[in-house]
Amino acid sequence: MNARARSAHAPDPSPARPEGRRPGSPIPVVTLKPGHVRPVWTGHPWVFAQAIARIEGGALPGDEVKVIDPHGATLGHGLYTPRSAIPVRIYTRDDAPVDGALFRRRIERAIQHRRDLGLPNHAAGHETTAYRLIHAEGDGLPGLVVDVLGDVAVVQIGTIGVKRREGIVFDALSELLSPRAIVDRTSVELAKKEGFEAAAGVVRGDTSVDRFSFVERGLLYEIPLALGQKTGFYLDQRTLRARVEQLAHGRRVLDAFSFVGTFAMAAARGGAKEVVAVDESALAIEVGAECARKNGLLGRIHFQRDDARQALSRASAEGGFDIVLCDPPKLSPTRGAKEGALGVYKALASAGCRATKAGGILVLSSCSSAVSIDDLTRALALGAREARMHAVIFDRHFQGADHPVSAAFPEGLYLKSVIARLEVL
């Protein structure tokens, strides 16, 4: 990143927030019920509401709290969110405080981990300046996501506890990365549930920033801030895009739910005979076409604004593609919505199979943590059967290494994809 002076016109990084406990006052204590201790003791970072026996000490939203078992043994310290189904997210496993020094150490550790992974990568032909820097629980900072998109750091705040400490986060990012700007892309809906007001746009640095400019695997992207998907880009599918590029040579490829056509550009660069990218967002299609033009690939990709499901149906009627990619938005944000989501995945798998030629390849993805790889595989099997085809999975992909997952936190493995060859029954 390029160092740049902090703008005098940047918004106040520490907006009004609820008062916490007074310095030096005792830390509130959360006691767990018998039978609810083992997951937290094992290392799971969430304390669910139904696991709590009592809270003592007058904890306020965002306060640090101490979590103990029914016998008084310390399980850790975390941050408190009373309005959530997950009232406490654990940060430490002893009596170490959740303070500014801890946040900075974990941010430093996250930066080093990415460097160990080779991110950013400046090797010719493989340049990558976009990656996830902080993956919440995976980096020991529940409620905080930070992506690096070129010379800009993009932040998403998921809890009121992190919101009350955002100045610490912004200071650390500014000092350790020297970004041109820090942009807040926190979900307004999530912030409302957590009890705080989400910021929007540049919160530190150059307020003239209106787009993200970065390189992934040698492909240049320019994404306007107005295109509001996640932090601005789907960084978690980098390895799958590389795999699609390997498979695409000489094949006709349909990229459904294409966003800005990341898979389409990978396929085109991989030597695909024909590539069609479909998304219902006019802005995503426009941005995707411009990115393809900058990479010399526009003449090899047809960008089409349409409903992805209609595009799949049309592809089926017209004889199908050699490779079909189905990477829909999150369908199951909660476990309660899982059954309905599985039905949608089955229908989508069926449509994807019909849109794929016999002997062709279907790539089916889910970014819903409540949907396991087994759930997705079953949805594919049922969808293929409905389409009178047989799916043989030969590859599986998950989120990239810059999206780490604690062994004690299976919910952290949210992204999964299957690549299957389709055969006629």
TrEMBL record:
Keyword RNA-binding included in the entry's annotation: yes
Species classification: Bacteria, Pseudomonadati, Myxococcota, Polyangia, Polyangiales
Disordered, as annotated region: 1-27
Protein known as: Class I SAM-dependent rRNA methyltransferase
InterPro entries hit by this protein: PUA, PUA-like_sf, PUA_sf, RlmI-like_PUA, SAM-dep_methyl-trfase, SAM-dependent_MTases_sf
Coiled coil spans: none
Extent of the signal sequence: none
Gene Ontology MF annotations: methyltransferase activity; RNA binding
Source organism: Polyangium fumosum
Family note: Belongs to the methyltransferase superfamily. RlmI family.
Domain of life: Bacteria
Compartments reported by the entry: Cytoplasm
Sorted UniProt keywords: Cytoplasm, Methyltransferase, RNA-binding, rRNA processing, S-adenosyl-L-methionine, Transferase
Cellular component, GO, one term: cytoplasm
GO biological process, one term: rRNA processing
Keyword Cytoplasm: yes
Domain spans labelled PUA: 28-112
